[in-house]
Amino acid sequence: MSVATRSTQSPSSPPGPEGPPPRRTGRLFALTGAVVGVIYGYDTGSISGALVFLSQDFHLSDTEKGLVNSILVLGSILGALIGGKLADALGRKAAMLIVAGSYTVFVALSALAPNVVVLDAVRFLLGIAIGISIVAAPLYIAESSPARTRGASVAAYQVATVTGIVLTYFVNWGLSDGGHWRLMLGLSAVPAALVLIPLFRLPDTPRWYVLKGRTDKAVEVMTLTDPDVDPHAETEAVRAALAEESGGSLRSLLRKPYARATLFVLGLGFFCQITGINAVTYYSPQIFEEMGFTGDGQNFLLPSFVQLASLAATVLAILIIDRLGRRVVLLSGIATMTAMLGVLTAVFGFGDLKGSGTWIGFGAILLFTAAFNFGFGSLIWVYASEAFPAQLRSTGASAMLTADLVANLLIAQFFPSLMSWAGAATTFAGLGVLALGALVFAACTAPETKGRQLEEIQGFWLNGGRWPTPAP
After folding, report:
1. What is the C-alpha separation between 58 and 124, in angstroms, rounded?
2. First-to-last CA distance in the chain?
3. Is the alpha carbon torsion for 211, 214, 216, 221 positive or negative?
4. pLDDT digits (tens, 9 = 90+) for 247-297
């Protein structure tokens, strides 16, 4: 929700509709979106533990293991492609209801799957729901949050997603003794069903009501979500911003003067995933077993501490990103990832994978994952939102998301086969080369945008990737 004009609500402004108090309604929007983020994170990571046991039950090959993961990502690509149009046509609230309902049904069905064919089919459908949620949930939160808390609300969604992944690993550890992979996959159906209750009570976002010409309803909801502003002036600001944003197309991204910005966001999105973060998310128990750890207790509990470190790194990045600057955070994160992939290559290639070697490997995995969340994970959407003018912003973000998911698909499908065919040392060395490429790419293309207005940042791309020289 763009805000061009802000003013204090006048005494003559009409009262809001009956319902929860305004500030409570705003918090309920953010909380509901955050719960969906937790469920999304859980569903993304739950397969990491379940795959160990369902592979034994279903006698899966390495290729079939990869397909169980990659089919979810393939569905996510389709869901992300239709998510924006669905949210525009039916509403942000309706899209969120579809997401929560689909999570409930498909998560439950995945836990009941009698064979791998049914499991793959259900996970493809679950992936579509996840793809829609990637688009709809941040929209729902951002467009319904007051301007003064919008950044924190969207950041809270990102933290909630990492929290969901953390919960996954602790649940997997708790259920590992009995090999209860069906429970690992199915538990998130309960919160997904419960989140439907507040979703039914909440309205849609003011921005969507304006998009559909329902300005009176937009004013009502604006009164509930942001009581500190004049709802009529704010609604008019949203209407003006929507008029400015019309007309963006994918073809425009590929033409000057935006081609350089497009190359940057596509490259950043692709490198974000191809450097291997989801290899750790999806296959960490197998990685730790290859590293020399034994027993389900260690192989399921250790990833929990890895994700806790990632959560701390995400929070730290949010706290310091506007102090140190974007480039410092991004480049230090990628450089640490590159170094840790070098350590892992050495551990697998030259270590005896006993004693200190295993713990050095564990430390490298922990720092690699934390560094990803500190750099790539915290900045990818910041750069996507800053690189383009308003009329191309959503199109550019969608292009980045597509590049991100395509790379994710490649990692999900081929990582276990590469580990078996080429060995762990060669696999991590390859990821290290890709991470080094990401570091060079980011160092050459990522601008420092700290403290700059959006118009200044767009001037950087319009000027061929250089900051315009101020007039004398």
Report:
1. 18
2. 36
3. negative
4. 556 677 777 777 888 888 899 999 999 998 988 888 887 888 888 777 665
